Amino acid sequence: MTRPSRSAPPPFAAFAMFAALLVAAPLAQAHVASNGFLVVQVSGQEISGSIELAIRDVELAIGVDANGDKRVTWGELRKAEPQLLQYLGQHLTLGAGAANCPINFQRLRVNARVDGNYAWVPFDARCPEVVRQLRLGYHLMDDYDPSHRGLLTLTSGRVTQTAVLGGSDPVVTLAVDHPSPGRAFVEYLQAGIWHIWSGIDHLLFLLSLLLPAVLLRRGHHWEPIEAARPAFMNVLKVVTAFTLAHSITLSLAAFDILRLPSRLTESVIAASIVVAALNNIFPVVTESRARIAFAFGLLHGFGFASVLADMGLPEGARLVSLVAFNLGIEAGQLAVVLAVMPVIYAIRNARVYRRTLLPWGSAAIALLATVWLVQRAFLASG
């Protein structure tokens, strides 16, 4: 007796996936990574700069949406300005030597970035002594979002250096006039790893390309690859193509040779996820997914470059920092591949993988990416 084939996943599985996605979709933001941007200029005893915090993070930290309509207006933000300045003063500190440098925050402003509006607060400070070693304490969002990081750009004369603040190392001390090249390499390496792990859009694009890597398309059906070597070669081709492509455009953008508008870049990145995910459901390209990876990897490189632009490339260590950032991205990607591939290879023979996880997982990814596409391309930042 022949068992009837099941060409679709059980209704409850499909319903559960889409119900979960519909709950999550309204919460989706253009970038889920939570970053603050700290700019500091040092001249003798004087310090000036600014701190930027996403308005969505401001709402989370101090609650500024007075009427509860899920939208923060300029009026609500201005009304909450005293609480915001108090919060910044309690969670951001500067020091020189053993002494603290009291921070004087100025009037609140708003700065628009691709992932939404940011509360931008300029500040100045005067230290009791000439600043040679600057101590920074960054504790913003510690109680609300442990994944939050502060991207620091520190300038003294012609010397510029960067650091990633927060997390397990909320207090750092930096030599103002003589930055360590080794530290710059480590900081940019960590920033690259952090960006790929916190940038869920890049991860979902990579996952969309990995899901069918353990399968072969024959006729109108997916069939499991019999040996590990072909699956490994599929993954190697995809990851190599993606790496090569984004390395090219990341380098071009980092050295100001070629740039694209951020909104266009982020919109096309979202579109690339939709295309890659839908290709798993309605296969058009099955044997040359590396071409998809390369083509859209060029656009993802411009997305990586936007983060690198926020951090800046320090004078005297531009090439080292660029290489370190790119290596960090590759290390982050490799960790994802090593985590995903053994699992999907082990379950590739299961009908649930081919009939449920691949099509419905890809559909969920495509729908979420469509939400991002609409947000990035058509909706005003907020």
Helix-strand blueprint:
Blueprint: H1 11-24, E1 35-43, E2 46-54, H2 55-62, H3 74-79, H4 81-91, E3 92-96, E4 99-100, E5 103-105, E6 109-113, E7 116-126, E8 133-138, E9 149-156, E10 159-165, E11 171-175, H5 181-198, H6 200-210, E12 215-218, E13 221-224, H7 228-254, H8 262-281, H9 289-311, H10 318-346, H11 351-378
Parallel strand pairs: 1-9
Antiparallel strand pairs: 1-2, 2-7, 3-4, 3-8, 5-7, 6-7, 8-11, 9-10, 12-13
Helix pairs in contact: 1-11, 5-10, 6-8, 6-10, 7-9, 7-10, 8-9, 8-11
Kindly name the structural category.
alpha+beta
* Average pLDDT figure: 82
| Number of separate strands | 13
How many alpha or pi helices?
11
Order of helices and strands: HEEHHHEEEEEEEEEHHEEHHHHH
Domain tally = 2
Gyration radius (Cα, Å) is 23 Å
Q: Report, as a whole number of angstroms, the end-to-end distance.
A: 60 Å
**Outline type:** globular
Biggest sheet, in brief?
7 strands, mixed
- Please indicate the percent range of residues in DSSP E strands (runs of 2 or more): 15-25%
Ranges with pLDDT <50 over ≥5 residues?
1-32
Helix content: 40-55%
Provide an overview of this structure.
- There is one protein chain.
- The protein is of the alpha+beta class and 382 residues long.
- The protein has two domains: 35-179, no CATH class; 191-378.
- The protein is 51% helix and 20% strand.
- The chain has eleven helices and 13 strands.
- It has helices at 11-24, 55-62, 74-79, 81-91, 181-198, 200-210, 228-254, 262-281, 289-311, 318-346, 351-378; strands at 35-43, 46-54, 92-96, 99-100, 103-105, 109-113, 116-126, 133-138, 149-156, 159-165, 171-175, 215-218, 221-224.
- Strands 1, 2, 5, 6, 7, 9 and 10 form a seven-stranded mixed β-sheet that branches.
- Helix 6 packs across helix 10.
- The radius of gyration is 23 Å and the shape is globular.
- 39% of the residues are buried.
